Amino acid sequence: MLVREMNRQECESLLARVGRGRLACVRDNQPYIVPIYFAFEPGQLYGFATMGQKIEWLRLNPLVCVEADEVLSHTEWQSVVVLGRYEEFRDIPEHLEERLQVQARLEQVNHLWWDTGFAAAQARERFDRDVTLFYCIHIQEITGRRASSDPVEQG
Questions:
Q1: What is the value of pTM for the model shown?
Q2: How far out from the chain centre does Cα 101 lie?
């Protein structure tokens, strides 16, 4: 297997294509990671959530890490890691335009963009349709690796 670094364009292409990954946050030196759907735009990831542990932690520490990957086989995969900063668009008049923009972008890339947020809220038995959050991860750093089969090993 050959592993190489991906350039920024390759990383962004993967993020735009897959639209799902894992978001990691930290509180009191304790990491927490959850699956998310997102919409990629250059420099940003947009997402949707309902109130829960993830949002509570992100409000305390907005520094996050997002990992997204595409695995075709044990020897053929791509993985991208984004370091960034969380920004929340609350349901207030000042954020209406941003919320509508994020929702429209999410609908373009994934018709089930709302699914994980609502499912998580129902599992917590605290579902409240009025407590929905749209957010942005401002990308500060992006790196990626790609693995491919090594013709020498197959020989």
A1: 0.81
A2: 17
